[in-house]
Write a structure and sequence with these properties.
single chain, about 200 residues, alpha+beta, 4-stranded antiparallel beta sheet, globular
Length: about 200
């Protein structure tokens, strides 16, 4: 179970992952419900609960494990379908300029990366809920299905400085290239890098 420092209202936990609120710049990753095999999710939970070593290194190893599965295209990959990707893209842009500024984003076949600048006091968890709740309903209607669309947990990282910011943008825009979905980032249609000169 996740534990956070006492008396710090900027932190909260949902299930196993800590989340940090009220940071100007946030990088968020949310995944389809079946994007990771059960044994990877179990390893994730066990490592978070038991790892007493260097937390930064443990987190890095865990994220590499998860990234490898995501980019391998595990699961149903519902977001590969154009009509589904459009729903997610439209949801990301809906509160643009009101609740947040959308700085970089990429819709992969089984997960979504987003970098935002928060513009209001709307909690990050509320922003994520609005994206995932709306898109779940629309995707299920479109595909004539019911049930879960998104994994209950999401990863968020607040951006510490300009170097971290640049690294986050590069990571988001290069994700389709690294996953073998395109040769250069400007070719991938479900990204803020689409059509941009590199």
């Amino acid at each position: 179970m996740c534990t956070m420092p006492d008396n710090n209202t900027d932190y909260h936990c949902r299930n196993y992952l800590p989340h940090i609120e009220r940071r100007r710049f946030q990088m968020i990753t949310f995944r389809l419900y079946d994007s990771l095999p059960a044994h990877v999710v179990q390893q994730w939970k066990e490592r978070i609960e038991t790892d007493k070593s260097d937390k930064t290194e443990a987190k890095r190893r865990l994220l590499v494990l998860i990234d490898n599965y995501e980019d391998a295209g595990y699961g149903s990959c519902l977001l590969r379908e154009e009509r589904v990707a459009i729903i997610v893209k439209d949801a990301l842009h809906y509160f643009e300029g009101d609740r947040y500024r959308l700085l970089a984003w990429c819709i992969m076949p089984n997960h979504v990366h987003v970098l935002i600048e928060q513009l209001s006091n709307v909690p990050l968890s509320t922003i994520l809920h609005s994206w995932r709740s709306y898109t779940s309903k629309r995707i299920n209607e479109l595909l004539d299905r019911s049930g879960k669309v998104w994994m209950s947990e999401y990863f968020d990282r607040y951006i510490r400085d300009s170097k971290h910011f640049d690294s986050a943008v590069r990571y988001i825009h290069n994700n389709p290239v690294n996953a073998g979905l395109c040769a250069i980032q400007s070719q991938y249609p479900w990204s803020s890098a689409y059509g941009l000169e590199t």
